[in-house]
Amino acid sequence: MNYFYYPGCSLTGSAREYDLATRAVLAAAGATLTEIDDWTCCGASAAAPISHLLSLSLSARNLALAEGMASDGDVLVPCSACYLNLKKAHTVLKTDADGRARINAALSAVNLTARGRGRVRHLLDVLATDLGSGGLAPLMARSLSGLSVAPYYGCQCLRPFVEFDNPERPVSMAPLIEATGADVFAWEMGARCCGAALVNTQPEAGLKRVAAILRAAKGADLIVTVCPMCQINLDAWQAKASRIAGEDLSISVLYLPQLLGLAMGLSAEALGLNLNLAILEGVREKIER
């Protein structure tokens, strides 16, 4: 299993633990990640309101760099926002001749050409489809039995591109969680939007969305995510969400590959657990025992 790896900006900063855990788990599973040389920001959500072409071209630049490294190959993207942006650009390159021409006219300024080869894939797709619970089960060194885990998918790995899961009732994390020995917490909030940047632009509205998700997770030991924006909303804003809700909504929040890595016997340091903001002491004792 070989993949081009696009970490994106968040995984080099606020979501460093996601990058560490992703690399560690995939290496332990026998996958090879080749980081795209000289990758740059995909444009996040800031580029599109300024220029649709700019947004597409920023992502296409990274795809062109990957194509220059090999004629074909899948680009693995852990960040859901980056995945969505690269997926949009890839779709235009592959299906829209006029759009491809406009993108490549922009890329000509940096002597690059993108053709839309290979595939853009989210980390969850690779974990669920290429590895699956059957591939992961033999790698488990310990059981996380006794833990109840709420899978939180968020929006952008599921919608609008329906690639590997049901966007309204996703289930792709469930077999992976079960492979660790943990129980899957039954809830209806796994695909609900966390509010994205609303916490910053309209704090009251954003925090209400965060509070609703955290409240629904009561009874679980922890939430696992596959998106840096979702993670920071559920991880960093618990205290403010609790104050708005008038109740304690504290819960541990991990990235999915951190949970998998713990069951695989990887160290807390290798998985970046010291960088998570919300790991309650009782849960820490269970997962690090």
TrEMBL record:
UniProt xrefs under Gene3D superfamilies: 1.20.1050.140, 3.40.50.11810
Q: Which GO terms describe its molecular function?
A: oxidoreductase activity
User: What Pfam families has UniProt attached to this entry?
Assistant: CCG
Native source organism of the sequence: Desulfosarcina ovata subsp. sediminis
Which InterPro entries does the entry mention?
Cys_rich_dom, HdrB/HdrD_reductase
What highest taxon heads this organism's lineage?
A: Bacteria
Alphabetically ordered keywords of this record: Oxidoreductase
Mind telling me what this protein is named?
Heterodisulfide reductase subunit B
* Cysteine-rich domain location: 4-87, 149-235
Q: Which PANTHER family match?
A: COB--COM HETERODISULFIDE REDUCTASE SUBUNIT B 1
